[in-house]
Design brief:
Elements (H helix, E strand, L loop, with lengths): L1 E6 L2 E4 L4 E9 L6 E7 L6 E7 L5 E3 L7 E6 L4 E6 L8 E8 L10 H6 L4 E2 L3 E6 L1
Parallel strand pairs: 2-11
Antiparallel strand pairs: 1-3, 3-8, 4-5, 4-9, 5-6, 7-8, 9-10, 9-11
Length: about 130
C-alpha cells in the first residue's frame, strides 16, 4: 500500500500562485507514476498532470499547460504542483494519486489519464481562487 497526503491548498486571488505538495509513504518503490487530478464543485474529476516516478516523462492537460507545473523529489518521496496565474476556474479539490501500472502505448496517453485509473489516492486539498 501507498499512502498519500496532500498539503498547500488555500485561498488565493486570481493571478496568484500556490504550490501543492503530496507526501508519499509505504510501498513507494512500487510506484510507476504519480499525478494530480481535480474536481470542481458540481463537476466530474479531471486529469491535471502526471509524472513518471523513476524517470522524467511528464504530461499536462491542455487546460493547464504553461500555468501548472508538476515536479517531484524522489529523495523526499514528494510530488509537487506549482500553480501560477491562477484563474477562478481552477477552483477545485486537488487530489494526488499514484499508480503501479505502466501507461499503455506511451506516457502521454491522454485517454488513459482521463480515465483516472490510479491505484492510490490522497484525500485532497481545496484550492479556491477568488476573482
Amino acid at each position: 500500500q501507498v499512502q498519500l497526503v496532500e498539503s498547500g491548498g488555500g485561498l488565493v486571488q486570481a493571478g496568484g500562485s500556490l504550490r501543492l505538495s503530496c507526501a508519499a509513504s509505504g510501498r513507494t518503490f512500487s510506484i510507476y507514476a504519480m499525478g494530480w487530478f481535480r474536481q470542481a464543485p458540481g463537476k466530474e474529476r479531471e486529469f491535471v498532470s502526471a509524472i513518471r516516478w523513476s524517470g522524467s516523462n511528464i504530461v499536462h492537460a491542455n487546460s493547464v499547460k504553461g500555468r501548472l507545473t508538476i515536479s517531484k523529489d524522489n529523495a523526499k518521496n514528494t510530488l509537487y504542483l506549482q500553480m501560477n496565474s491562477l484563474k477562478p476556474e481552477d477552483t477545485a479539490v486537488y487530489y494526488c494519486a499514484a499508480s503501479d501500472r505502466v501507461v499503455p502505448i506511451n506516457f502521454a496517453n491522454m485517454e488513459y489519464w482521463g480515465k483516472g485509473t490510479m491505484d492510490y489516492w490522497g484525500k485532497g486539498t481545496l484550492v479556491t481562487v477568488s476573482s
